[in-house]
Amino acid sequence: MVKEHCTWTGFYSRLADKLLTFKNDRRSLMNKLLSLYEGVDMKLPKLDSSSTPADIDPYTVFGLFNKGISDTNRRKIVSAFAEAFGIEADQPKDFQGVPTLNNLNATFYAFKGDGRRGEHDIDNLWRTFEAEIKLAAEDSELNRAEFVEAYDATIGQFGLGWKLTMGLYWVRPYAFVSLDSRNRWYLGDMKTAGPVVASAFPKEKGSPIPSGAEYLAICDVVRSQLGSKDCPYQDFPALSNAAFIESERVNKERKAAAKAADKEAEESALGDAGVETVHYWLYAPGEGASMWEEFYRRGIMGMGWCDLGDLSGYATKEDMQLKLQEVCGGATTQKNSAHAVWQFVHDIKPGDVVFAKRGRTEILGRGVVVGDYEYDEGESRYPNIRKVKWSHKGSWRTGEMFAMKTLTDMTDYPDFLAKIDPFFEDAAVGEEGVVALEYPLYGAEDFLAEVYMDETAYEALTNVLSSKKNVILQGAPGVGKTFVAKRLAYSMMGAKDVDRVMIVQFHQSYSYEDFIEGFRPSAAGFELTKGAFYSFCKKAAEDEDNDYFFVIDEINRGNLSKIFGELFMLIENDKRGPKNKLQLLYSRELFYVPSNVYLIGMMNTADRSLAMLDYALRRRFAFVDLRPGFGSDGFAEYRDGLSSPKFNELVSCVVRLNAAIADDDSLGEGFCIGHSYFCGLRVEDVTDAALSAIVEFELVPLLREYWFDEPSKVREWADALRRAIK
């Protein structure tokens, strides 16, 4: 009888039985998977170097719906599996206690052609799969020996590691325990699993991957303690679910603590404080790359400047620069060197990607930063280090000249990254090698707490964007269009995932070539380069389980017919997906806009120099008015928190001014002054000088533009604003 807390187990076991029949007919299995995904109008994830893998193992098949995707899509895929394989078991009502793969590393084998996949790797996985099913059915010495032999022949394959035990658990969840990172953390703690299990279980970090015999011994020990006072879980799925719940609780507490600590941090221009963004660094491992072999072997990146001592002891970049001038002498400012060492200590973060270079044209390797800054007193030449998980080593050339600096942040150079990314398409190096960023959770409550909009308006906005897929937020200056756009995207994604949001700004010179594709000058003459929206759609198409948001600031400043070209039709909500393709202008490629891409445009209604939108484009967008939020509960709470009578009086005056602007036949509501002119202030910021600056340098110049032919009105309201803060 299937237990209530793990309704997935019966289905998973029956699927495993069905898959075993394909052990010697994997081509038929691959064809069935292709047909299955086509039937649900989804794209089969990338499973090998080629678009259609020639071979596949059963654990990777399970991984198709046991990775970082929504439960809705998991159920959709599982339902398709049930139909395709004729599985009569009840489909899962939940996925409690199911460990999931990292989306970037969702196969149990290395991609073909990268030099790290053995000839028998996939055969070994099938052999282990068959052996575990036999052992689960009959626990005999012979079956144990066969399992151990198959497991030991498989576990050392590239990138496998602990992940193999996740697959064993999916297939027979009552016979094999998963040693995923959550379980290792949870069961290695005496308080949560008892002393017997904790002593037998591999610890969270630093433990070697167990052999087949050691793994079975772990399963036996845990099984012997189930239902005891110290380990009160009825089976492995219940235990795995408890580990997940507890780890989520701890993660939530840690995030809350980090959020409280960062509350006073100044937000960036688009308000993305607290978001861990991956940065890409170009790095020289020693002069002439002389230290590359050693750094690769040791799993580090190192910096010199040993005369500076421990770099974490400097309070500012300027202090570093002064010390460099002192020890190096000469007339140089040492500004670039100070900037490099400061970035090495403070700007590089775990999860960032590093490309090692030699000279100005050659890439030597790629890795992921996995450690914080360390100072090695015993190292005389390169005492400043960070641990790096190097995933690639070789020699690649892009045809471009690199900067001469030791360390360069390349994050804001997408063209460069687009050229070198194909070198490292198989960048995932195994479950433990991939540093997965956990973006801060963000939902409707977070949106309403930050954006001065009521719940009804928010629900209407999300509903229209979900159905139409394209909206334009229009409003006067200062209503927070950009602020709203990104937070709207975050709230619909459920997290501040900056990798799934892209923002561009249209202007008079912005073109189809910038947006989709076009020919650009190069060293060899001209080359076809891809634009921002093309690249974004390709990225979204590779991750169709998640939503992506393309934000266009000042959408009405560009020549929209010229920019969108043939995409006028493809952006319609019912023309999305691979079934609706059009041929692009230059490359002649058949292109489509994925259904998981949403467009959010922003339009300033107070700019009289701009023409109306093209009617063909207007039909494809929903238009949402954003109005000043002075009357919202959120702004009232913010205003009360400042406790400033002058601030309150100034806001009241602006509310009266907006009423006059709305009643003016030459202006109207689209010209009202927004609340963002007054946002972001702290109690100590609300000084006479600060309020006067808002009036004199922001509001009064705006009024002069509005009433350029009525100077008396400008004087009237300028005087009223000044009196409000006297």
TrEMBL record:
One term of GO molecular function: ATP binding
Domain ATPase dynein-related AAA: 470-621
Protein name from the UniProt record: AAA family ATPase
Annotated organism of origin: Gordonibacter urolithinfaciens
InterPro entries: ATPase_dyneun-rel_AAA (IPR011704), Methyl-DNA_Rec/Restrict_Enz (IPR052934), P-loop_NTPase (IPR027417)
Stored Gene3D superfamilies: P-loop containing nucleotide triphosphate hydrolases
